[in-house]
Specification:
Helix 4 packs across helix 5, helix 6 runs parallel beside helix 12 and helix 6 runs antiparallel to helix 19 (468-485). It contains 19 helices and 6 strands. It is elongated, with a radius of gyration of 30 Å. It has a two-stranded antiparallel ribbon. A two-stranded parallel sheet has the order 3-4. Strands 5-6 form a two-stranded antiparallel ribbon. By secondary structure, it is mainly α. The two termini are 18 Å apart. Helix content is 57%, strand content 4%. The relative contact order is 0.10. Bound molecules: arginine (ARG). The site of arginine (ARG) has 10 residues, from helix 6.
């Protein structure tokens, strides 16, 4: 996703155009809607209501939408072929100017739609003046935003796929390394590092799936809905939809111009990606701490301290955690904006773009940084395994040993629990206590040994080496299926 300039980065020196004699009020400086107004817009109005600083990121989509609209007008005879070609070549030039950053914005450009139309009119003369026939910025902006989402959500989903592949690579490279699996952040049972890494990969698979489903649902053209009620002119919304590559066309003009469900869905999907990245981030903050020492970051993916010379900080992981709050904020803000809006378009809807663009940009940056961080980090198997080999993490296996010889699980739980309590009270090691118990004995005590526990996790989808190959196989199949869906 392209970085869009912050309002503060754009120097738009708004001139007060309330003066009817102001030179900018004639010719090029006019707003699209000046006809109805005796006076021009106040500086404060322009400064407060413009969306150009952020919606210019949609210029490509605005030009594509306009080109399709013009071709549609020509198809139904509202433009001659010559007029169509004049407007299309003006649009091409606007595209070149935008691409090369030579497009000159003027004071009256409220938004990207205004800017493009103004420039087309300058370039194509009277034919340019026909561009907006049977179209409103209301169906135009909805069209642009859907086109933008179709492209950008795919880009985000592809980058998530890269991260999933890196998780698989690291999983495959981690061999038999195991670490403690936690519940309540208390050591619970040993799990393969591969299994742990793939757990995050599966969450990301649901994210990819959600983004693609959102993308499919938003693949409906609103072009031709007009301001709210369609048109008296013989326009061709189906043809426009096909021209723009939309899978479907709107059925209700009021809904078409006021529906922003797709933005809310996209921002939700991204917020959930953000939450998944945040959870990965939190673990890496712990893993790279002196207390855990499970992983070391590559220098390129860590930061230092301005004061403490010894520090190596996991800033990427912390940002992944911190920025998820902002993405949740984008979602809640957007939902609040929608609540209570009467049909159809309301200017409030302009508030849809910044949260969407921000969430896309933040997820894109986070995924790239985390992918690099995880790809280049070094795991410390000795530290992971030493933590996982704590004798008490075998307690469940001891209880299950008793279950195998017919002891009801609740009873087995109590027997082993009593041994753990005794061991913690210093009465001996768990293995010695277990070996000395006739119900358990030396065979059971062997379960407490280093590296044994993880091998006991054999059931489908379990955390041990016996179950892993099946999981890897279906993870690979999922990646292959998604690669195809993502056009990779
Ligand atoms: N900048 C506006 C938006 O983002 C475009 C639509 C303006 N429509 C209008 N009727 N003023 O929503």
């Amino acid at each position: 996703a392209a970085h869009w300039p912050l309002t503060s980065e754009i120097s738009q020196d708004w001139t007060d155009m309330t003066d009817p004699q102001h030179p900018d009020r004639s010719g090029d400086g006019q707003t699209l809607w000046h006809g109805r107004f005796a006076g021009g817009p106040a500086e404060a109005l322009m400064a407060y209501t413009v969306s150009l600083p952020f919606d210019r990121t949609m210029w490509r989509d605005d030009i594509d939408g306009s080109a399709a609209h013009v071709r549609g007008l020509a198809r139904v005879g509202l433009l001659t072929d010559a007029e169509r070609d004049d407007v299309l070549s003006a649009l091409d030039q606007v595209s070149d100017e935008m691409e090369s950053d030579t497009f000159v914005f003027v004071e009256s450009d409220e938004d990207v739609h205004t800017a493009v139309e103004r420039r087309v009119t300058e370039l194509a003369g009277s034919a340019g003046g026909k561009l907006h026939t049977a179209r409103s910025r209301n169906d135009q902006v909805a069209t642009d935003l859907r086109l933008w989402c179709k492209r950008e959500l795919l880009v985000v989903a592809r980058s998530i796929h890269d991260l999933q592949s890196v998780l698989l690579d690291r999983a495959l490279g981690s061999g038999d390394t195991y670490l403690p699996g936690y519940t309540h952040l208390q050591r619970a049972q040993p799990v393969l590092l591969a299994h742990h890494l793939l757990a995050h990969g599966w969450a990301l698979a649901r994210d990819v799936d959600r983004l693609l489903a959102t993308r499919d649902r938003l693949d409906v053209s609103p072009l031709g809905a007009g301001a709210l009620a369609g048109s008296s002119l013989p326009i061709d919304p189906e043809g426009n939809a096909a021209d723009l590559g939309f899978a479907a066309v709107f059925d209700n003009s009021l809904d078409a111009v006021s529906d922003r469900d797709f933005v809310a869905e996209a921002v939700f999907d991204l917020a959930l990606v953000g939450i998944h990245l945040s959870r990965i981030g939190e673990e890496w903050v712990l893993w790279t701490s002196g207390e855990f020492g499970f992983a070391k970051l590559d220098d390129g993916y860590a930061t230092g301290s301005s004061m403490l010379p010894q520090k190596k900080n996991p800033d990427i992981a912390e940002h992944a955690r911190g920025k998820s709050g902002r993405m949740i904020g984008n979602l809640t803000g957007l939902l609040a904006t929608h609540k209570g809006l009467p049909l159809a378009y309301n200017r409030d809807l302009q508030e849809d773009k910044e949260p969407l663009f921000d969430s896309v940009e933040q997820v894109t940056l986070a995924v790239a940084a985390l992918t690099g961080m995880i790809a280049t980090a070094t795991f410390v198997p000795e530290a992971m395994q030493a933590a996982a080999d704590e004798e008490t993490t075998a307690a469940t296996d001891l209880a299950e040993y008793l279950v195998r010889v017919g002891v009801p699980f609740r009873e087995a739980h109590a027997i082993v629990g009593a041994h753990v309590r005794a061991a913690l009270a210093g009465e001996g090691s768990l293995s010695d206590l277990v070996a000395a118990d006739s119900r358990l004995g030396p065979d059971a005590a062997a379960l407490v040994g280093p590296g044994v526990g993880v091998r006991m996790r054999t059931s489908r989808g379990a955390a041990g080496p016996e179950a892993l190959p099946l999981q890897v196989e279906s993870y690979r199949a999922m990646l292959a299926r998604d690669a195809e869906r993502l056009g990779l």
